[in-house]
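Hi all, long-time lurker, first post. I run a small reading group and we've been trying to get comfortable going from sequence to structure in the token notation. Rather than ask abstract questions, I figured I'd post a concrete chain and ask someone more experienced to write out its structure so we can walk through it together at our next meeting. Sequence below, copied exactly:
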Amino acid sequence: MYSPFKDAVIADGHCDTVHLFRGRRGYLFANRNTTGHIDLPRLQEGGVTMQFFALYIEPEFKPDQALSRTLQLAEHFLSEMGKNSEQVQIIRTQRDLARASKDKKLAALMTLEGGEPLEGGVEVLQILYRLGLRGVGLTWNQRNGLADGVGVGAAAGGLTQLGKIMVREMNRLGMIVDGSHIAPRGFFDLLETSTSPVVITHANAAALCAHPRNLTDEQLYLLRDQGGVVGLTFYPAFIREEGPATLSHLLDHFCYIAEHMGTDMIAIGADFDGIDETVVELSDVSKLPLLMQGLVERGFTEAEVRSMMGENLLRIVNNTLIRRDIL
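-- Answer (accepted) --
Happy to help. Here is the structure in token form:
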């Protein structure tokens, strides 16, 4: 597929593809599949250089089986990336990130979506760090021992004491702090607590689509001022309130945030393989060059397109990771 900037960094902050690694419906990560949104050939076709792979803990495993489920998914991730190590580099440190760039391999980061597995204490976070976990979303939509998700509603609280301890330990270890799904009070606590820039890996502008998972202007301004980024997501329900979402509708979110808060805080977090419908023109990850072309047609400069498609997220990752493992 045509790409306006063939050597651009393209970094996606969120997918749920690990759930396909169990071979459901004949899926193989190394092959080009007719199921799912992401596999290695389509990542390469889309020009992706860095991909966050989330370990999403399904509600039926919470709370009692959350940790065991996390370990199962972590093994699926590590096994599948290991099988494809000639083309994929698991990212644990700054050195790994540099090596992936030098060797032209896909930089793969293992992240956690929902803090329930961490309720056992800071030692659990440290064990998962040793396994290669490098990013944590504190909540999904429910309440847990770290914070409340947006699904709790008006009564939602902020970070718990354990949540604050976990964030500080993540900062010490050099892990990405992800505030996706967190309730507003927790969002503000998170920005005050974290000494590293916070990433909202998959959300859009509430001013254009008033979904509770999207960020208000106040949140976007504060996130920008804290040094963080927001990964704009391709889930139609977060793009427009009614009807299918087109590429043009998604581009409206890029333009709105760029106009009001600047381009340096914008990234992408498609949520591929975690959504049941996509932007019409972006049916899978191989179509990402169409987004780049759309940004060009909306009047963004080459430097701005490069920053939003990957360089902003890459900056956060590189500045957050430690040069070498510290445990």
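A couple of things your group might point at:
The beta strands are 11-12, 50-56, 88-90, 106-113, 133-137, 176-178, 198-200, 229-232, 266-268.
The domain at 11-318 is CATH 3.20.20.140 (TIM Barrel).
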